[in-house]
Amino acid sequence: VHLVESGGDMVQPGGSLRLSCAASGFSFADYVMSWYRQAPGKERERVAMITNGGTSTSYADVVKGRFTVSRDDSKSTLYLQMNDLKPEDTAVYYCYRATGHWGQGTQVTVSA
After folding, report:
1. Cα 108 to the chain's mean position, in Å?
2. Separation between Cα atoms, residue 83 and residue 63, nearest integer Å
3. Which of 23, 60, 92, 101 fits a 20 to 30 Å CA distance from 4?
4. pLDDT class for 94, splitting at 50, 70, 90?
5. Please, how many CA atoms are within 13 Å of residue 8, restricted to the half-sphere of its CB?
6. Are residues 19 and 79 in contact, defined by beta-carbon separation less than 8 angstroms?
7. N- to C-terminal Cα distance for the chain?
8. Is 17 left (phi over 0), alpha (psi -120 to 50) or beta?
9. What is the signed CA dihedral for 47, 20, 74, 99, rounded to 10 degrees?
10. pLDDT per position as a tens digit, 43-88
11. Is 78 exposed, middle or buried (CB count within 10 Å of its CB: 0-12, 13-18, 19+)?
C-alpha cells in the first residue's frame, strides 16, 4: 500500500486548496478512504471520509460545508477540496486507508 499526498500550500484566510492522494499497491475502488489532519500540539483528527463507490461521505463538524471529499477510482486518487480556509485549518493533512496505512502528509498553512 502506497499513499502520496500533494497540493498543500500556504494560503490566505478565505482561500481554497485542493489536496490529492495518489494510491497504489491495492485495489483502490474497494476501500473506504479518509482524510485526517494534525495541527501542532494536537491529536490527529479525521476531517472527511468517503465510502468505496463514493456513495456516502461524512465530515467533521468544523469543516462541514467548506470541505468536499471525492474520489476518482479510474485514477486511484482521493481528493479534498477545501474552501473558505481558516487559520485553524493549518495542519499536516494525511490520506488514510484502513487498517493503519498512512501517506507522508502534506502541509497546509492558512495565514495572512
Report:
1. 11
2. 9
3. 60
4. very high
5. 18
6. yes
7. 37
8. beta
9. -50
10. 999 999 999 988 999 999 999 999 999 999 999 999 999 999 999 9
11. buried
For residue 96, the SS3 value is: strand
Render pLDDT for 97-112 as a digit per residue (tens, 0 to 9): 988 999 999 999 999 9
Q: Which three cell numbers stand for residue 112?
A: 495572512
Question: For 11, what's the count of Cα atoms within 13 Å in the CB-facing half-sphere?
Answer: 20
What is the grid cell recorded at 62?
468544523
CA distances from 112 to 14, 67, 77 (A): 10, 20, 30
Residue 10, pLDDT score: 98
**Dihedral sign of CA atoms 88, 90, 91, 95 in order:** positive
**Burial label, 4 (beta-carbon count in 10 A; 0-12, 13-18, 19+):** middle
Rounded CA-CA distance 53/62 in Å is 25
